[in-house]
Amino acid sequence: MALSTFFTEPFYSLADFDRLFDEAFNARTSAVAPRQQGDNSASRPMRPRMDLHEDQEKNLVTATFELPGLSKENVQIDVRDNVLTVSGESTISSERDEKGYSVRERRYGKFSRSLPLPQGIKPEEIKASMDSGVLTITFPRTTPEQAPKRITIS
Predict the structure, then answer these.
(1) I need a surface site. Which of 23, 84, 114, 130 has the fewest CB within 10 A?
(2) Contact of 40 with 104, CB cutoff 8 Å
(3) Torsion angle, alpha carbons of 33, 37, 39, 44, to 10
(4) pLDDT of the chain along its 154 residues, tens only?
(5) Are strands 109-116 and 50-55 parallel, antiparallel or unpaired?
(6) Exposure of 112 by Cβ count < 10 A (0-12 exposed, 13-18 middle, 19+ buried)?
(7) Contact 81, 123 (CB under 8 A)
């Protein structure tokens, strides 16, 4: 990372820290070349932002993903081995001209985010909706079988 980056980007997000750790890990474990200084941020993989909220009173977890410009046809939600995975692809318009860009911050390409699910959650208990590029997924926090049970002393 260039020293000038610290002066031109004074605020870093968690995604930037994730990218730094990913680059450091990938440099040690793969033959993929690290990101070059002149690379544009649009060439980095797309990683949708997510909020995760637990409501103990309603026994509900809500995951909200920002997927600007995507429709529900471009997004897949899968459950496998108690892991919920949201994946999809954002594509570049075929009419786009490659010349003349000074700044390109929007990202394109495939993405995937995974969340561990509590034990015993059935796929039919997971609900998803999408409105204006915001995907909302809700599922139970615990199952009735996992709810703590009070034992009385005799």
Answers:
(1) 114
(2) yes
(3) 60
(4) 444 444 444 455 666 666 676 666 666 655 544 444 444 444 556 788 899 999 988 989 999 999 988 888 989 999 998 899 999 988 766 566 667 766 766 677 888 899 888 888 888 899 999 999 899 999 988 766 666 677 788 7
(5) unpaired
(6) middle
(7) no
d(CA 55, CA 106): 33
* Residue type for position 60: L
Comparing CA positions, the residue from 50, 18, 57, 20 lying closest to residue 35 is 20
Return the closest-CA partner of residue 46 out of 91, 95, 101: 91
Would you mind telling me the total number of residues written for the chain in this entry? 154
What is the residue type of 58? K
> Is residue 12 within 8 Å of 1, Cβ to Cβ?
no
